[in-house]
Design a protein that fits this description.
alpha+beta; endopeptidase fold (from Nostoc punctiforme); 3-stranded mixed β-sheet; about 55% helix
Length: about 575
């Protein structure tokens, strides 16, 4: 039979080749066919015999490649499932029994399913690799006479012969199909059983918990019904416990807040370091004063030296507060560069040489000839111009408070600085004895002058003008309402504008003393000026105010305000009283 099929294939190949060789280009007239020639052409196109459906080696190789890929896909899927269950085990840190049971059951079921799938796929591969479809007769037809596909053809051949009779192969195929069906059913039953076991365990646990909760609730209700006073006691104990807990929590927060506030309002550097830095800054101020004292020897040859000098002083608490905000627990060596920066911002000493052309009257002598021919000497006066050389020396003190606002502090840092100054860093005795450690000593926000003192017209005029500027800030060198005032500028303005007919010009504190007649403390009366010395390092009077009686004065502190002259600070620096000439 096989030999006959091979001969048929050979004849078909030769016939096809001959037909291909006979195919030649036809003349245009050949396209017109009669009915007879058309039937002949159609018969030539009909293929006789059976087609060769045998797989080539390349096709077989491709099928094997796909089979291997299928196995690898199943292996990858099984590995992914195993990794997933391992992650669940790793995450189950508290060894939850329910979680472990569910995870193990799912892994078992999935393993069984994967094993069945692998087994089925292996069977299928064996059928494709070594099945009868490769070597059997490929001429298989359906009962209706149509040609079958490859898979249906192989199934038909495995089931029986070409005539449709049942054979041993058919029984074997049916047996395999029944085995596969049994396997699928067994796998599904295993899955259902595992799920039912997990569900039943969970349900039993829930049922027991509900039963226990119900019994406990019944017991509590029965006990409370029989002993209601115990419930009242428990409620009272609970309320007391809540109150104590609340107080404890509030107390903890309060203590924490107080501790934080104490730190925020305290100098954090060691006292010896704070005092050492203060001494360094005062040494710089003393060196500045020595430079001013030596101006005339360092700049000789001038006809006049004009001094316009601000007070040299600072509040040590303001300096310590600034350094605390910038450095916290600072040391003397750490802040030297910053001290120079602060000092240069606070003080500025300048000199200006001025040459003026002035005139003066000079007496000269000359020889004259009289009418009788004799000579004599006579004197005469002439106006002569000359150069007058002046050295103007100016010292400005921007004050430490103004320097702080130039240091670029943030809002939080500025708030901390102001808190430290207000609380004196919780070290109020650290700079004891320093006259500049108490800002604006003895200040009064308001003061009522006794009515009998205002019966003096000149004094009443001074007070009326002086009180216009209460609250104006201290500005070094200021001498008018448009610029605000310093101490001498303020008193000079009041004297010149109070309407008493005085005009002393713009004077320093010591210059105003020169416009007065000194009087004793017992002789002093409202309207006299009061002078202080040593408020900064300068000779003579360094500060001035207007005495209003009863141990009070109005002066330009910071800001302009009333102050008592009987505080320790002002008593230590008292100089004299003066009555305006």
């Amino acid at each position: 039979m096989e030999k006959k099929l091979e001969e048929d294939r050979s004849r078909q190949k030769k016939s096809g080749a001959q037909a291909h060789g006979r195919h030649k280009p036809r003349a245009p007239g050949d396209k017109l066919k009669t009915e007879t020639s058309a039937k002949q052409a159609m018969r030539k196109k009909i293929r006789h015999g059976k087609a060769n459906n045998e797989l080539t080696e390349a096709e077989k190789k491709l099928i094997r490649k796909k089979q291997v890929q299928g196995r690898r896909a199943i292996d990858r899927d099984m590995a992914a499932k195993a990794s997933f269950h391992k992650k669940i085990d790793d995450a189950n840190q508290d060894q939850n029994v329910g979680t472990q049971a569910v995870n193990d059951s799912m892994a078992t079921v999935e393993g069984a399913i994967d094993g069945l799938q692998r087994h089925r796929y292996s069977k299928k591969l064996k059928a494709l690799d070594g099945g009868p479809a490769v070597d059997r007769d490929t001429s298989a037809f359906s009962g209706l006479g149509g040609k079958l596909g490859r898979n249906a053809r192989d199934a038909n051949l495995n089931a029986g012969d070409v005539t449709g009779n049942v054979s041993k192969g058919s029984k074997a195929a049916q047996k395999k199909m029944m085995q596969k069906e049994f396997q699928r059913t067994a796998a599904k039953m295993s899955e259902n059983e595992a799920a039912n076991q997990i569900g039943s365990k969970t349900k039993r646990f829930v049922d027991k918990a509900e039963d226990l909760a119900g019994r406990l609730g019944e017991w509590v209700a029965e006990f409370v019904g029989e002993h209601p006073w115990i419930l009242l006691i428990l409620l009272i104990v609970l309320i007391v416990a809540l109150i104590i807990s609340s107080f404890a929590s509030s107390g903890g927060l309060l203590m924490s807040s107080l501790g934080h506030s104490t730190v925020e309002s305290s100098f954090t550097a060691d006292d010896d370091q704070i005092l050492a830095v203060e001494a360094d800054y005062k040494a710089k101020e003393q060196e500045l004063q020595r430079k001013i004292d030596n101006i005339e020897s360092d700049y000789p040859g001038y006809d006049e030296y004009q001094y316009n000098l601000a007070e040299i002083n600072h509040n040590p608490y303001e300096l310590a507060a600034l350094l605390t905000v910038l450095y916290e627990d600072y040391t003397e060596a750490e802040v030297q560069t910053k001290l120079n920066e602060i000092f240069n911002k606070q003080y500025r000493l300048t000199t200006q040489a001025i040459t003026e052309i002035r005139t003066r009257t000079e007496t000269r002598t000359r020889t004259v000839t009289n009418e009788d021919g004799t000579t004599s000497t006579e004197t005469y006066e002439v106006e002569v111009q000359y150069e007058y050389h002046i050295l103007k020396v100016t010292l400005t003190n921007a004050t430490m408070a103004a320097v702080v606002r130039q240091m670029g502090l943030t809002d939080d840092q500025m708030a901390r600085y102001e808190l430290l100054v207000e609380t004196l860093g919780n070290k109020g005795d650290l700079f004891e004895g320093d006259p500049y450690a108490a800002p604006n000593p003895g200040d009064y926000g308001d003061y009522d002058i006794p009515p009998e003192a205002l019966t003096d017209t000149r004094f009443a005029n001074m007070v009326r003008e002086a009180e216009k500027y209460l609250g104006y800030p201290y500005v070094w060198g200021g001498s008018s309402p448009s610029t605000s005032f310093d101490c001498s500028g303020y008193v000079s303005w009041v004297i010149n504008h109070c309407g008493n007919g005085w005009n002393v010009g713009r004077q320093t504190a010591n210059g105003l003393l020169g416009c007065c007649t000194r009087v004793s403390r017992d002789e002093a009366k409202p309207g006299d000026l009061i002078f202080f010395q040593g408020t900064y390092d300068t000779a003579g009077a360094s500060h001035v105010g207007i005495y209003v009686g009863n141990g009070m004065m109005i002066h330009c502190g910071n800001p302009i305000q009333y102050a008592s002259i009987n505080t320790n600070y002002w008593r230590q620096h008292f100089y004299t009283f003066g009555r305006i000439n």
